[in-house]
Amino acid sequence: MKIEKDFTVAHGPDVVWAAFSDVRLVAACLPGAAILEELGDNRYRGQFSVKVGPLAAAFEGEVTLLRDDAGRSGSVEGKGADAKSNSRASGSMTYRVDAAEGGSRVLVDCTINLAGALAQFGKAGVVKEIANRITADFVRNLEGHLAARVAAAPAATSSEQKTEIPVSPPKPAQSLDAGRLMWSIVRDAVVGFFRTLLGRRSSNS
Prior knowledge:
alpha+beta, Alpha-D-Glucose-1,6-Bisphosphate, Chain A, domain 4, 39% strand
């Protein structure tokens, strides 16, 4: 399954790129994600927790990160498994930070593979809509972290100092409630249907 996303952040590309170098900050902003251990050589042991109705899974596995500072681009590859649900996931992602009016634009290209019990929820339409919700949460969390750090940082004396961002502390993983997200998707679809229906009736009256 392939997912392409892009979003904007109201901070300059150097500040956003510096934030992306803090793996724990990125995990703290991503619902359900946590970094458990640094393994060296750009490798990390991580966890992604998700809950779909009565089914809860905590995927644990290894993630490898590569960064190109000159091009403000990078890649992520990882795989993990959940012993309780006998589910497995693997994927790869590339991303790039570009300058944009009023801030930065981040482009993401991701490939995801699901197997096991959770694969039944891997229908492209549902997963892509959930990815939209996760992206929105991630951007909101990232904006909040950056705004707080900029406000708390001492006055910088050079442009290089302005992009420095302290390393964030570890954050315990909180399960992503995909069931809640799916209910939100269904609710929005129903509301959209009735709005369309009422709109048609109004135009015909």
